């Protein structure tokens, strides 16, 4: 049985850091585990311009510095946290212009543009209701500049069953999008179904520069849990995220995709903090907070598949495939996990008085992060 895992330091290719007071705590947890992160723009109001993305990036870096000054972290931890690099994303709206896309592509700060189908998820109200009808010129500009489109892939029609919304999206949006903009680079974010995994597996097209055209991120919760987790012994709001957890057959398909070694699949936690009282209420928010413990959870998922014995597959998913897709170097150094049990706290005392309940609160994980660089 493998006891130690050593890989190049990982990145998180789908992350929510929020803003304001929460930022300092949330970014510290991520910076201790990931060198870079693709930071989602679904703030209130959303990050829709390059100038806003530049300002948000600075607030994130300031928050890292502030966290370093609290005295809560060792000198070694602070040194690692200061290496953290936020990669910014623009929130696509009906008003986004091709000029803003060009500015984004030349900014060196904005790495992608995010599609939130209006009404599909947390803070998606400002999103797009008809991508192909509304955003043709913008998609063309993105294609031209090689700026990837990151997609929350669910249809929002009230008459489509909530468990079928991703599979329907593959047929009604993803396939037409790939046909109409064959050189647009797309990331299907937080995939949850066999249909999405198959679609991404079978489409290994590359652009003229040899870069993959389609990829997908996968969260720890969708690799480790099926929809039973939502109803185990009663309603479990801390397991509620979007797209919602699916049946076991879908989880198995995701595990197979993540451990396949295919370059299309990489790590994206979708770690999304919400205050405890906003999740434990009559209309609870969608999103699971996993960042501090995500690497142990991914290791557990790979071990379930017997895919840890050679760390190669794990390293591809966590640390190699994402950089290759985004055209950035693999991180230098060593990230290490050891087989050592670790209990996830019941509650983290930040954001509001009610705190945050992390994913798998109170559970014991098999792996502990033991070296950061
Ligand atoms: N995944 C979620 O359930 N929630 C995310 C939004 C998103 O990624 O869809 C959030 O911002 O809280
Ligand atoms: Zn989403
Ligand atoms: Zn997300």
UniProtKB/TrEMBL annotation:
<feature type="active site">
    <location>
        <position position="270"/>
    </location>
</feature>
<comment type="similarity">
    <text>Belongs to the metallo-dependent hydrolases superfamily. DHOase family. Class II DHOase subfamily.</text>
</comment>
<dbReference type="InterPro" id="IPR006680">
    <property type="entry name" value="Amidohydro-rel"/>
</dbReference>
<dbReference type="InterPro" id="IPR002195">
    <property type="entry name" value="Dihydroorotase_CS"/>
</dbReference>
<feature type="binding site">
    <location>
        <position position="242"/>
    </location>
    <ligand>
        <name>substrate</name>
    </ligand>
</feature>
<feature type="binding site">
    <location>
        <position position="286"/>
    </location>
    <ligand>
        <name>substrate</name>
    </ligand>
</feature>
<keyword id="KW-0665">Pyrimidine biosynthesis</keyword>
<feature type="domain" description="Amidohydrolase-related">
    <location>
        <begin position="12"/>
        <end position="336"/>
    </location>
</feature>
<feature type="binding site">
    <location>
        <position position="152"/>
    </location>
    <ligand>
        <name>substrate</name>
    </ligand>
</feature>
<feature type="binding site">
    <location>
        <position position="274"/>
    </location>
    <ligand>
        <name>substrate</name>
    </ligand>
</feature>
<feature type="binding site">
    <location>
        <position position="152"/>
    </location>
    <ligand>
        <name>Zn(2+) 2</name>
    </ligand>
</feature>
<feature type="binding site">
    <location>
        <position position="42"/>
    </location>
    <ligand>
        <name>substrate</name>
    </ligand>
</feature>
<comment type="pathway">
    <text>Pyrimidine metabolism; UMP biosynthesis via de novo pathway; (S)-dihydroorotate from bicarbonate: step 3/3.</text>
</comment>
<dbReference type="Pfam" id="PF01979">
    <property type="entry name" value="Amidohydro_1"/>
</dbReference>
<dbReference type="InterPro" id="IPR032466">
    <property type="entry name" value="Metal_Hydrolase"/>
</dbReference>
<feature type="modified residue" description="N6-carboxylysine">
    <location>
        <position position="114"/>
    </location>
</feature>
<keyword id="KW-0862">Zinc</keyword>
<feature type="binding site">
    <location>
        <begin position="16"/>
        <end position="18"/>
    </location>
    <ligand>
        <name>substrate</name>
    </ligand>
</feature>
<dbReference type="GO" id="GO:0004151">
    <property type="term" value="F:dihydroorotase activity"/>
</dbReference>
<protein>
    <recommendedName>
        <fullName>Dihydroorotase</fullName>
        <ecNumber>3.5.2.3</ecNumber>
    </recommendedName>
</protein>
<feature type="binding site">
    <location>
        <position position="270"/>
    </location>
    <ligand>
        <name>Zn(2+) 1</name>
    </ligand>
</feature>
<feature type="binding site">
    <location>
        <position position="190"/>
    </location>
    <ligand>
        <name>Zn(2+) 2</name>
    </ligand>
</feature>
<comment type="subunit">
    <text>Homodimer.</text>
</comment>
<dbReference type="InterPro" id="IPR004721">
    <property type="entry name" value="DHOdimr"/>
</dbReference>
<feature type="binding site" description="via carbamate group">
    <location>
        <position position="114"/>
    </location>
    <ligand>
        <name>Zn(2+) 2</name>
    </ligand>
</feature>
<keyword id="KW-0479">Metal-binding</keyword>
<feature type="binding site">
    <location>
        <position position="16"/>
    </location>
    <ligand>
        <name>Zn(2+) 1</name>
    </ligand>
</feature>
<comment type="function">
    <text>Catalyzes the reversible cyclization of carbamoyl aspartate to dihydroorotate.</text>
</comment>
<feature type="binding site">
    <location>
        <position position="14"/>
    </location>
    <ligand>
        <name>Zn(2+) 1</name>
    </ligand>
</feature>
<keyword id="KW-0378">Hydrolase</keyword>
<feature type="binding site" description="via carbamate group">
    <location>
        <position position="114"/>
    </location>
    <ligand>
        <name>Zn(2+) 1</name>
    </ligand>
</feature>
């Amino acid at each position: 049985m493998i006891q130690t895992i050593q890989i190049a330091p990982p990145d998180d290719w789908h992350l929510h850091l929020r803003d304001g007071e929460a930022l300092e705590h949330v970014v510290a947890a991520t910076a201790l585990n990931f060198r870079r992160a693709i930071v989602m723009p679904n703030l209130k109001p959303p990050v829709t311009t390059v100038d806003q993305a530049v300002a948000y990036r600075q607030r994130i870096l300031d928050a890292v510095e502030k966290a370093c000054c609290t005295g809560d972290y060792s000198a070694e931890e602070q040194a690692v946290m200061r290496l953290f690099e936020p990669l910014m994303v623009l929130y696509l709206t009906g008003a986004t212009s091709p000029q803003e896309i060009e500015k984004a592509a030349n900014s060196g700060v904005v790495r992608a543009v995010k599609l939130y189908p209006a009404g599909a998820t947390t803070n998606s109200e400002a999103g797009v209701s008809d991508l192909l009808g509304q955003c043709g010129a913008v998609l063309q500009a993105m294609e031209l500049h090689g700026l990837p489109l990151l997609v929350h892939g669910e249809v929002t029609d009230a008459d489509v069953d909530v468990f079928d919304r991703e599979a329907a999206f593959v047929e009604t949006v993803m396939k037409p999008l790939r046909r109409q903009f064959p050189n647009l680079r797309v990331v299907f974010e937080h995939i949850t179904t066999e249909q999405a995994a198959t679609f991404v597996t079978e489409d290994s097209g590359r652009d003229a520069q040899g870069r993959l055209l389609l990829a997908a991120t996968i969260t720890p919760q969708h690799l480790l849990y099926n929809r039973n987790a939502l109803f185990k012994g009663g309603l479990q709001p801390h397991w509620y995220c979007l797209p919602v957890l699916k049946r076991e057959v879908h989880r198995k398909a995701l595990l197979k995709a993540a451990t396949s070694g295919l370059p299309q699949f990489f790590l994206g936690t979708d770690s999304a903090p919400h205050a405890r009282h906003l999740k434990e209420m009559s209309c609870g928010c969608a999103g699971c907070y996993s960042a501090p413990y995500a690497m142990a959870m991914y290791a557990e998922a790979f071990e379930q598949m017997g895919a840890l014995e050679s760390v190669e597959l794990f390293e591809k998913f966590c640390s190699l495939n994402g950089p290759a897709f985004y055209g950035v170097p693999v991180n230098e150094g060593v990230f290490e996990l050891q087989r050592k049990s670790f209990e996830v706290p019941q509650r983290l005392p930040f954001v509001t008085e009610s705190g945050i309940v992390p994913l798998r609160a109170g559970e014991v994980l098999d792996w502990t992060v033991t070296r950061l660089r």
